[in-house]
Amino acid sequence: MEGLRLTEYAGGGGCACKLPPGELDGLVGGLAEGPARPAAELLLGLAGGGDDAAVVALDGERALVTTADFFTPVVNDPYDWGRIAAANALSDVYAMGGTPWAAVNLLAWPRDLLPMEVAAEVLRGGRDVAHEAACHVSGGHSVTGPEPLYGMSVVGVVDRARMMRLDAARPGMPLTLTKPLGTGVLNARHKSTGEVFEQAVASMTALNRDASGAAVAAGIRAGTDVTGFGLLGHAYKLARASGVTVTLDAGAVPYLPGAREAVRDGFVSGGTRRNLEWVAPHTDFAGVPEEARLLLADAQTSGGLLLAGEIPGHPVVGEVTAAGPTAVVVRG
């Protein structure tokens, strides 16, 4: 597998290949929440503002969290891609304050173009990260496809009284970000040049488990993970669901080494530009330059958590305020 450029087999890369957020809003906006006579109570779904996972009541204290996530190769190394995709899928459960229990693989493979041995490395990477999370991996589903896709469907459990959600942010709460931004622009550079950014791989393969646990212990009940819609997009979704304004301090947001240089050199994905176009009508940028706007909208893969609250060891990047003229305000 030496010299393999896995990203060359994909039109997009990681969470940057998501459908544009505005189009996605229109696509799911008219869907019904469930059957006329559901077998269990749906605690969170489409009506909650687009939370990271669906949550269904198990009993008076616990609820089931279910999610699925998959994408095209974001790096050239198949084992690392598997690890990143698994961490990204598991993150949806952590974003709700839950614990992943079991996962199944989702795989599409161009078997006439890429050896099955490469697919085996992808699955091995996913398994290893799931096992790191103490989550079972059992089987899954695979199809032949024109480009490689990999991810997981994950089921977990959450304490109903301690669940995190999009619509629970209130004025006066600080905003914490648990991973630096920049994976999108660094992945775009990696796809174009083959240059490996170990700091980006380390960030994308890191589980959000500890940050989630710290948030739940601190009593935080509002949050989301930062993935394909960028920090701005996910901040907007949080503000919209909670009926508040989210104010971000651009100077307090951490970035991976090399991220700013990647933007200046033009390694910006179409997904990032679509994110910025989507949030711009709902954002007061107060003179913040284009480079900073693109970084704040950068389509992240397996990003950190954006929390309405504060936990030790992670930067506060803004605050929740009462609803104003725009859903998001960015201070320089």
Write the layout of secondary structure elements.
Elements: H1 21-28, E1 42-44, E2 54-57, E3 62-71, H2 78-95, E4 99-109, H3 116-132, E5 136-144, E6 149-159, E7 174-177, H4 183-193, H5 198-205, H6 209-217, E8 223-225, H7 230-242, E9 244-249, H8 259-264, H9 270-279, E10 283-284, H10 290-296, E11 305-308, E12 316-322, E13 328-331
Parallel strand pairs: 4-5, 9-13, 10-13
Antiparallel strand pairs: 1-2, 2-3, 3-6, 4-6, 7-11, 7-12, 8-11, 9-12
Helix pairs in contact: 2-3, 7-9
Keywords: ATP-binding, Kinase, Magnesium, Metal-binding, Nucleotide-binding, Selenium, Transferase
InterPro entries: PurM-like_C_dom (IPR010918), PurM-like_C_sf (IPR036676), PurM-like_N (IPR016188), PurM-like_N_sf (IPR036921), SelD_I (IPR023061), SPS/SelD (IPR004536)
Binding site for Mg(2+): 52, 92, 225
Task: Record keyword descriptors for this entry.
332 residues; 2 domains; alpha+beta; Phosphoribosyl-aminoimidazole Synthetase, Chain A, domain 2
Q: What can be said about this structure in brief?
A:
This protein is 32% helix and 23% strand.
The CATH class of the largest domain, by name, is Alpha Beta
Number of E-type strands = 13
- Over the alpha carbons, how many angstroms does the gyration radius reach? 19 Å
Average pLDDT for all residues: 93
Spans of at least 5 consecutive residues whose pLDDT stays below 50 are none
Describe the structure.
This protein has 332 residues and is of the alpha+beta class. It folds into 2 domains: 6-162, PurM-like, N-terminal domain (60s Ribosomal Protein L30, Chain: A); 166-331, Phosphoribosyl-aminoimidazole Synthetase, Chain A, domain 2. The chain is 32% helix and 23% strand. It is built from 10 helices and 13 strands. The protein has helices at 21-28, 78-95, 116-132, 183-193, 198-205, 209-217, 230-242, 259-264, 270-279, 290-296, and strands at 42-44, 54-57, 62-71, 99-109, 136-144, 149-159, 174-177, 223-225, 244-249, 283-284, 305-308, 316-322, 328-331. Strands 8-11-7-12-9-13-10 form a 7-stranded mixed β-sheet, with helices on both faces. A 6-stranded mixed β-sheet has the order 1-2-3-6-4-5. The longest helix is centred in the first third of the chain and has 18 residues, at 78-95. The protein starts with 20 loop residues before the first helix and ends with a strand. The mean pLDDT is 93.
